[in-house]
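In the previous chapter we treated chains in isolation. Here, by contrast, the input contains two separate entities that must be folded as one system, with a combined length of 445 residues.
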Amino acid sequence: MSHDLILDLIPGYALGSLDADDLQLVTRHLQDCPVCRQDVQAYQETVASLAMAAPQYAPSPALKSRLMQKIDQQGAPTNPQQDGWVGLFKALSAWFSSPVGVVAGALAVLMVIALGVNNLVLWSQVRELQSLAAQQELRLVQLSGTTHAPNASGYIVFNPNQSSGKLIVENTPGLSQTQQYQLWLIKDGKRTSGGVFSVNESGSTTHIIRAEKPLDSFQAFGITVEPRGGSPAPTGIKVMGGDL
Amino acid sequence: MDYSVLDDASLVAMIAQPAWGIAAGMQQRKDAFSALYDRHARLVFSVAFTTLSDRGIAEEITQDVFMRVWNNAGTYRPETAQVRTWLVSITRHRAIDEFRRRGARREQDQVDWPEEDRNLDKNLHQESPVEPVEGSIQRQVIRKAVAGLPEEQKQILGLAFFNGLTHQEIADQLGTPLGTVKSRIRLALVKVRESLNEGQV
């Protein structure tokens, strides 16, 4: 099969104007040819740009109201992302080849928004997020709730080799005034404290972890309920855990 | 939070919150979605309106497209295509489906690439206040590229892009040989792609 023939058909393929026989030819070829697939992607961008060459009309403002109403009625997306936060990070990984400043800024802002955070105190942590993101290859450890807190979830994000990281939790039950949650960094049966924290009325919070060793040197993370201020070793029930 | 500073892929990622774990909450997702709409609604609507010449249907399609974005944001992968490309693609599919359903023939309508018609209702041409500067520079580049095409190429490109006609259908409609149609489409797209690459800053 002549590659030149396929190359000639690629623009039409991207436009969607190929007749059935040509379409079949190209579709089959693309299965085995990454070079041509790249060409198709490039032409798809070209085709999409054509939309801007047409006269631009604005829809009525009422349309937006109807749309937002429909969203309110329907609620959350009917097809939620399947692979969760890790999938989101993978999807965003394409950005890491961009100029670092831009990526780090966007990603940091994205994370701060995603945490449902609007207050100024946590905005000050954006700079920490930025330096984390700037170093590429953030590691992510998912935490799941135990039977004591089945809806609780969270994750720890950190840069490999770094001894600092960020813990984020959600749907975690509030505690009494005399108690706090404590994070444990676990290795070879030994548990080191990763700090204490409390959750807000929504059951979420973020907590900066400062360890003595790089976080990826541990094998697992766990969260228990402890007296306010924490304990030297875990004494209370375990609410969440995750392995590296 | 000023969502207009986030790029398209960030906004889509915001809408596509994971099913478990940290959720931005409906409000943040809606705000990101609202910002995406403000940025791209005109483009989506214009494609639909140019294809169907009916404001009501074009608005329905626009709503449909953005509902698909809301529900399927989790399937979007930035490494595959730009968000705008994704949007235009969904819009064209819907608009062309509708166009075919109505069995509309474009002979009595414009068959040429649609130009700005100064006589149209001014309300239709509102300049969006939220359009970023690169958007309008890009628009100038692409308009110049299309305007610079030979008439026959422009015409055929318009039929394929807006009405979704295949090469054979265009050949039948215009009475032009199939080979000529195929070659004109290819030449037009190659030329436009080159112009866009040149026009890039």
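Chain B has eight helices and no strands. The radius of gyration of chain B is 18 Å. Compare these points with the single-chain example from earlier in the chapter.
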